[in-house]
Amino acid sequence: MLRAGIVGLPNVGKSTLFNALVANAKAEAANFPFCTIEPNVGVVSVPDERLDVLAKISQSEKIVPTRIEFVDIAGLVKGASKGEGLGNQFLANIREVDAIVQVVRCFDDPDIIHVSGSVDPVRDIEIINLELALADLDQVNKRIERVRKQAKNSKDAQAELTVLEQIIVALDQGKPARQVNLTPEEEELIKSLGLLTRKPIIYGANVSEDDLATGNEWVEQVRKLAETEGAKVVIISAQVEAELVDLSPQERQEFLESLNVEEGGLKSLIKATYELLGLRTYLTTGHRKPALGQF
Description:
Elements: E1 3-7, H1 14-22, E2 40-45, H2 50-58, E3 63-64, E4 67-72, H3 87-95, E5 99-105, H4 121-150, H5 155-172, H6 184-190, E6 201-206, H7 217-229, E7 232-236, H8 238-244, H9 249-258, H10 265-276, E8 283-284, E9 292-294
Parallel strand pairs: 1-4, 1-5, 3-9, 5-6, 6-7
Antiparallel strand pairs: 2-4, 8-9
């Protein structure tokens, strides 16, 4: 099962969002940095309206939706690549996921501490992306030292060295490694490195209840930055999603309508993450068989 890591600075709403994602998650959401230390893991079903329709047509006894795994990872601070805060653990946990959901704070609340003292989503994104890039730079440079010695007598090592040098150039220019176009063969050469900035990313702009329908100036700033990376932005409200968890379907719909939105950002985030992972859906269905599935 593919995994998506929820990352961000402390107190941006990661654990609150995670709790809403998995509904019964045990992640603690509290108003202080490093509330999440050990990563919390939850399996989430991907929403697909076609499943109920097919189940009804085929009179299937069971619906089996596709699932992806979300990992709530400890908050990062400036200097994480050098071990500050929970940096080493944070980076190690990110290496184990297949994609990154970076939650960005786009709301102001004097009762919720911001680790940097003010709300500035672009600055927050740059802090995290810089730490990921610095970690990759360190890893790639170490790898180059080893491969350069082997390249004298190995064509495979020569090919790997060429790829690594391309990535170093991109990182030095402030670009993530995922923006370096590689062939499948070249990709395989560096796969074992698990480069952090090579992982596909989506930005979750966490807004207040009032801004869920329209977004705000901070969201627009995130969108502009994301465009330079070719990344997608999804507007979410961890606050709203936390309130929706305990409501009945009818109450949930009425609440969303009162906010002028058709559905919460949660469904959009799950679907966008599913697409980000490069997954495709195949549906099978049969009469009174537990075979309706999405894989």
